Amino acid sequence: MSLAHQKITKARTQLLLDNPFFGNIAMRLDLVETDQFDTMATDGKRILFNPAFVDKHSNAHLKGVVAHEVCHVIFKHHLRRGQRDQNNWNVAADYAINSILVDAGFSLPEDGLVDLAWRGQSAEDIYGSLFKDQPEPPAAGQQGDSESPKGGDAGDAQGDAQGNDAKAAENGGSQDAPALPTQSGDDQPVDIQGHGVVIDGTNDDGSALSAADVQEQDDQWTEIVLSAAMISGEAGKGDSPFKQHIDILRRPQVDWRSVLRRFLLDGRPAGTTYQRLGRRSRAVGVPLPSRRVDVGGEIAVLLDVSSSVDDEMFAQFCEELQLIASEFDITSHVIKFTHKVRDVQVVEAGDEIDRTRFYGGTNTKGAFEHIEEEGLNVDAIIVFSDCEDYYGEIPDPSCPTLIAACIQHEHWLETIEKQADWAQVVQISR
Predict the structure, then answer these.
(1) How far apart are CA 170 and CA 33, in angstroms?
(2) How many degrees, rounded to 5, is the angle at CA 207 between CA 201 and CA 213?
(3) Per-residue model confidence as pLDDT tens digits over 221-264
């Protein structure tokens, strides 16, 4: 074991003694020595460290940097980037966690990205504020206006991290680390400032994560974080900077369809109708009340069909739309959108949903503007999306709005709720 490896191991052990919450999680991450990074990095499996960086820093600074990498994992930054720019995502994620670490009393190197003005904001919030005017790089093999399916697995957009999941040997033997992340279509490594890099998570064989893989790793880390919080007593600390995050992870699952039903019935005349003689009525020969609810009026349904929405998620959106068409006597203007409006279908009660899909970037604002431009007089708006977009620029709609978010991480709800405080937000379970 090299001197640098001994030094970082000592810092991790000290972290366990001084800060059991951080330390318990840090012990889940293998220490890997590498010269592929100037500082340190994590991919949710390992903490990778450059020996030259370790040699020049004190134990207090190293303990802070280990806590920094752990914080990335606590907030699952290695699973949350999506199609965002790699370098910009790192900057936003560092700003999000370094204020927490400073408030918690950790000592960080002077070149770290620290700005207490970002205190309490998520990486998504910060990213949207700092880089909202910069176009997102397209998914691998995609053009912004493409209508053809993504090439490769569903998780291609998760990033460019490479490498094997090799454990650090106790004798300090050589380990393969992932290559430096690159931006889409660029062979040059990302130049990330600060004192750490968060790498997109991968499978054990180094392959990109599918949507199911992301969900599995997300669930695993939820359990690890909650377990560490319980063991360390962090969950019971009223002044813990992680209390809100832990509470969100503990949040019970919401019955999405009950929320949808309440939303459509709220403030509208509700009841049963005898206008249609349904299958049950024909079977018994008398007109029984229909299971379809007569709410009347018109709604706009904004359907995200961008590249970040995989085929499984798209199918789920269509099923939820079909539920609306089959259960409610209502006219739905179904607006499919990527970075622009791609298709509009008017769906009456009982109609089949057109399941043609499209691919490209994401601009939810354009779909909302379409409602105004076309003069659609709707009573409510429902958005089906993975919410890989910035909602802070969308003007307050003039009618009740429900965002049905099919997202990978429960704590994203907090970010979306803050950005879209004009809407009701609910998570759809995958």
Answers:
(1) 11
(2) 60
(3) 888 888 888 888 776 666 666 766 676 666 655 667 777 877 88
3-state class (DSSP) for residue 227? helix
Give which of 386, 313, 323, 294 is closest to 84, Cα–Cα: 386
Which of the pair, 162 or 90, is modelled with greater confidence?
Answer: 90
Q: Residue 267: is its pLDDT beyond 50?
A: no
> What is the enclosing helix (H) or strand (E) of 131?
helix 123-131
- Going along the chain from its start, the domains and CATH numbers come out as 3-170+180-249 (no CATH), 256-427 (3.40.50.410)
Read off the pLDDT of residues 209-226 as tens digits, 9 standing for 90 and up: 887 788 788 888 888 888
**Cα(295)–Cα(397) distance, integer angstroms:** 21
* Nearest-angstrom CA–CA distance, 321 and 345: 12
Compute φ and ψ for 342, nearest 5 degrees: -105, -30
Residue type, 191: D
Query: What does the pLDDT read at residue 316?
Result: 85
Question: What are residue 383's DSSP bridge partners?
Answer: 302, 403
Average pLDDT over residues 307-315: 85
| Cα–Cα distance list, 207 to 49, 152, 155, 213, 354 (Å) | 22, 11, 9, 11, 34
Tell me, what amino acid is at 274? Y
Instruction: Extract the tokens encoding 282.
Output: 């024909």
The rounded distance, in Å, linking the Cα atoms of 194 and 280 is 66
> Half-sphere exposure of residue 316, counting CA atoms within 13 Å on the CB side?
18
